[in-house]
Write a structure and sequence with these properties.
Elements lengths: L1 E9 L5 E9 L4 E5 L6 H8 L7 E6 L2 E2 L4 H5 L2 E4 L11 H11 L4 H4 L1 H9 L13 H13 L5 E5 L7 H16 L3 E6 L2 H7 L2 E6 L2 E7 H7 L1 E8 L5 H6 L3 E4 L4 E7 L3 H8 L4 E7 L3 H32 L17 H10 L1
Parallel strand pairs: 3-8, 3-9, 6-7, 7-8
Antiparallel strand pairs: 1-2, 1-4, 4-5, 9-10, 11-13, 11-14, 12-13
Amino acid sequence: MIELKDVTLKYSSTKGVFNLNFNVEKGEAFGYVGPDNAGKTTTIRMLMGLIRPGRGSATIDGLNCFFRASAIQKNLGYVPEEVVLFENMRVKEYLNFITQMRGIFGQKDTRLRDSLIERFEVETRGKIENMSNGMKKRLAIVTALMHDPQTLVLDEPTSGLDPLMQSRLLDLVLEEKRRGKTVLLSTHKFEEVERTCDRVGVLKEGHLVENMDIVSLRAEETKAYLVKFAAPPNLEQIKKYGFGYLQFSQSDYEIFSPGDRIDVLMKVLSHEKVLVFNSKNQSLEEIFQQHYQKEIKHKENKKEVKNKEVKNKEEKPKLFPKKEEKHKALPDQEKKVSEVKKA
């Protein structure tokens, strides 16, 4: 299990990660999504024990990631975004070195390593320095997983891989999850999260702005249906029940429905002669964009209400207005003196 509690690490007032709280359970894959410089790699470096949080705690299987890093890494597989290997070593020499370092001995124990080499078609001849970046990434995947770790931390693991190897890696992630492994997948590709993960966390400017179950998120989505009618439909009836639509022709429409109202839509359409009814699939990225637009609109509405309240407060007449005090002018001192002299 991976757990972060109130983790903060500031590089400046706006750069770093701030108050991160999330966990990844055993047998669960967690997608960690965000744009470049959002703080994903910083989070992973803390989990790997490379840097220490300024505040809060990061643990894997109950062990502190900074103080117990060596113990954690015995049962952890890490694939970094940027692969750094011993360039002067030959590939076989490097594989044997990592095998011994992992404590893997004998033909029986090297079966997993050899199957990974075959699966990712790693070229084991020649020096590492002569390998392409994609081949180096495949080698890094093999050495990260060959000791059958229970926790996988993957930082942009498909970068540098061709589409075939990307697909094989994502298939492997699914297999490992089914075997009860704990997986943290950091990526900027929503399609990878959609294919492999149970939950998704979205990082923006160092803040975790979303942490949702993908099934729940999909239930919230506005679904789109492509419908062909035999005759022009009753649009007033469709609008009456709260469904939106786009019209392409007199008979072709795209109708929008919240995920939990498909039964109502079916009742409305039962009064029409429908020739074609197809569901239009939305990507996870499109769902998030809709979700964020709703959040932004909600915040703007709250701000507008707050501004109105402040304005009304300023314009509200006072119950007991202060009376203007009239200050009597003091008599001219010289005039007063002259009057005294005359008397």
